[in-house]
Specification:
707 residues; single chain
């Protein structure tokens, strides 16, 4: 016994004591701990940690934007303890904190950067706070109905006059604080104004009385505007642009306007673009499609060292892309992000007589790959990019040369192995109708019994398999059907019918999904409208191999009349320990006890969204899941259940868990109910934009647009 005891003591003495690590290593470890935990908990454990937790490297920048457990009292204590040490404070999306929380920010006298997007801030509170922040140079705020610039004090306006970076989200027609910011170098505008009030009255894009002050753009270097659907947003952004059209800032190097649908060019905007062509050299460009289509604008614009281009939904042909933008490969090594989403002719020499389904010109894509060899983000979704049959010219083969890619979005039909499709005739599974109608019995299918058999059946020589193998460091991947449209609305009723998938995409299924499992560092995956998913076995491979996966979005996989991949999905979820966001969109989805039991293995899950026409849910299973998964703060379900069932479940979840989860946001509502759009408008913008609404997010904005 004494020998055993001495051996145990020896093992203990040889054990690793965390406190024996160097300060540098400990500081690196502590940098992964939320600041509220460091200051309010960890530093109270011992003297050494008390000193380290207050190190400037940990208190200089405080990020609360994803700290869903933070509440008003914690913020108050945090500001009291380290307020003077904070130089950068990010509270973006903290919608659950009461507006009085903002009062405590006044303790941060040395603040240089402050992000309050998504927080409740009145004009008077903003004025009081900014009056004390004399060193502020970067600010992000929301402008809500009732905002009154006349309530801003002279001290507040003095602070704003020194602000060089402003991000402003508008929920009402207003200039906000822009006229007060006389030193602006970067201006980001997000227009989220609805066309109708809650009472049903039509809104006007005219600014409120007393808001006729002119913005100051003379020092502007970056102008970015993102518009939500609606004519009022277009009216208001034109007022912001009117000043730019009079005199274009000579230092402007990034000009970006993201507008859905049709946003017509006017005389003022044409003058602005002509002035830009004469006077500035750009590094980043994004314009509404109507401003580019059919014009020679790109031929006249001058570029310096461009890092971002977006020609989303433009009719730009590949010939024009090569001649006018890539310019024979000159000066394009600097380009790191390119968005060609919905640009249906961008890989064809001309668009006049071309059908969208015609084969691409591989030489154009090859020129693009060679010229832009340092691309990190590339979006080619929402178009039919069909590769020719010639060997070595497949889209996947050409893209495999882009070794620096971190995010990639492709249409489903672009990853089809053309040679394989030519050699083999259509199988019975290819002939299954992709509709909501009656299921057709086509005979007994034979599927592999286990993962080993399935792996042996993989054709690892396919071009998509090779592409996935070459992009080892890819973090974000989107494979989206070129004709896919989500049933989840923005400002309109839910979509009841969807277009059939592209014929070339009919063979894309489980083996292609399994190929994705080669992406060891994958963090975000979107799969939508993959018709030939038969068992979903590829999902299990991803769950086993992609251990860093944080975001998963699956939509309309396999037959539309049945969720054929449910068993595989449940097996996959048992391995997704890092998964934080899960979005599922599939008709007839059954959110029952087995599904939620499997989902409970995702111990890190924070947000869940299910969109399912004619889908069903089991209330007891949902409640049990919420009780087991303590990190979940968002539960959105838009199903086929009755309004009564949905309301009762929503109330039960809020009543049971709101007290312990201050950020809890629950929306359970019938998908096809006429009041769905009214419910959607109350969803916090953070959740709506990041998960609830389906969209391609690759190269959506320039990298590092805001911190």
């Amino acid at each position: 016994p004494q020998e055993i005891l001495s051996e145990e003591n020896e093992e203990e003495s040889n054990g690793v004591n965390l406190m024996e690590f160097s300060d540098e290593i400990l500081l690196h470890i502590l940098s992964y701990v939320p600041c509220t935990d460091l200051v309010l908990n960890v530093r109270r454990t011992c003297r050494k940690l008390e000193t380290l937790c207050l190190d400037k490297s940990l208190t200089h920048t405080v990020l609360l934007q994803k700290d869903y457990k933070v509440n008003k009292d914690k913020v108050k204590q945090l500001m009291r303890d380290i307020g003077k040490e904070i130089y950068q404070l990010n509270m973006a999306g903290c919608y659950w904190l009461p507006s009085s929380t903002i009062d405590h920010v006044t303790r941060c006298k040395n603040l240089v950067k402050l992000n309050l997007s998504g927080c409740h801030v009145t004009s008077l509170r903003l004025s009081k706070m900014l009056s004390t922040l004399q060193h502020l140079r970067s600010l992000a705020i929301d402008v809500n109905p009732g905002f009154d610039a006349s309530q801003l004090s002279s001290e507040c306006k003095a602070t704003l006059s020194r602000v060089s970076e402003l991000k402003q989200t508008l929920y009402t027609p207003s200039y906000g604080v822009v006229p007060c910011c006389t030193s602006l170098e970067k201006l980001l505008l997000y227009f989220e104004i609805l066309d109708r009030s809650r009472e049903g009255f039509m809104l006007s894009g005219q600014l409120m009385v007393g808001e006729s002050n002119v913005p100051h753009y003379q020092n502007l270097r970056v102008f970015y505007a993102r518009l939500a659907p609606g004519y009022v947003n277009q009216e208001v952004v034109r007022l912001y642009l009117a000043v730019l059209s009079d005199r274009t800032p000579e230092n402007l190097h990034a000009f970006l306007i993201s507008a859905p649908g049709s946003f017509a060019e006017t005389g003022a905007t044409k003058n602005l673009l002509d002035s830009m062509a004469r006077n500035v050299r750009l590094d980043a460009l994004q314009l509404p499609k109507a401003w580019i289509n059919g014009s020679g604008l790109l031929q006249h614009l001058k570029f310096n060292n461009p890092f971002y281009f977006s020609f989303s939904r433009c009719t730009l042909s590949g010939g024009h892309l090569i001649q006018r933008v890539i310019n024979g490969g000159k000066d394009l090594k600097s380009l790191t992000s390119l968005n060609l989403s919905g640009c249906v002719h961008c890989l064809a020499p001309e668009s006049l007589f071309r059908k969208a389904e015609d084969d691409i010109d591989s030489s154009i894509l090859e020129s693009l790959v060679v010229s832009c060899c340092n691309l990190r983000h590339l979006n080619l979704s929402a178009a039919h990019h069909h590769s020719p049959e010639s060997i070595g010219n497949h889209l996947c083969q050409l893209l495999s040369r882009l070794k620096h890619l971190l995010s990639l979005a492709l249409p489903v039909c672009s990853i089809t192995d053309v040679a394989a499709n030519v050699e083999k005739p259509p199988t019975a599974s290819n002939l299954v109708p992709q509709t909501f109608g009656r299921k057709v019995r086509i005979g007994i299918q034979t599927y592999p019994r286990n993962l080993v058999d399935q792996a042996n059946q993989k054709i690892e020589s396919t071009v998509f398999w090779a592409l996935m193998g070459s992009l080892r460091f890819l973090e974000t991947l989107e494979i989206i059907g070129s004709s896919f449209s989500s049933a989840m609305p923005r400002n309109e009723p839910a979509i009841r019918n969807s277009l059939p998938p592209c014929v070339r995409a009919q063979s894309v299924g489980d083996s292609e999904v399994a190929a994705i499992s080669q992406l060891t560092y994958l963090q975000s995956l979107t799969l939508a409208q993959l018709p030939n998913i038969l068992t979903g076995s590829g999902l299990i491979h991803i769950g086993l191999q992609c251990q860093h996966l944080r975001t998963l979005s699956l939509a309309n996989l396999g037959m539309m009349g049945k969720v054929v991949y449910m068993s595989a999905l449940m097996d996959m979820l048992k391995h997704c320990k890092c998964l934080r966001d899960l979005r599922l969109e599939q008709p007839y989805f059954c959110a029952g006890a087995q599904f939620f039991q499997a989902l409970s293995h995702c111990s890190s899950l924070q947000r869940l969204c299910i969109v399912s026409r004619s889908g069903t849910l089991q209330s007891d299973a949902v409640m049990s899941f919420m009780a087991n998964c303590l990190e979940v703060i968002m539960c959105h379900m838009f199903m086929g259940e009755s309004l009564t069932v949905c309301k009762n479940l929503q109330q039960s979840i809020v009543r049971s868990f709101q007290a312990d989860r201050p950020a809890l946001n629950v929306v359970i509502f019938p998908l096809l109910h006429e009041d769905l759009t009214e419910v959607i408008r109350d969803v916090p913008m953070r959740h709506l934009d990041e998960i609830t609404l389906f969209k391609s997010r690759v190269a959506e904005e320039p990298p590092n647009l805001w911190w």
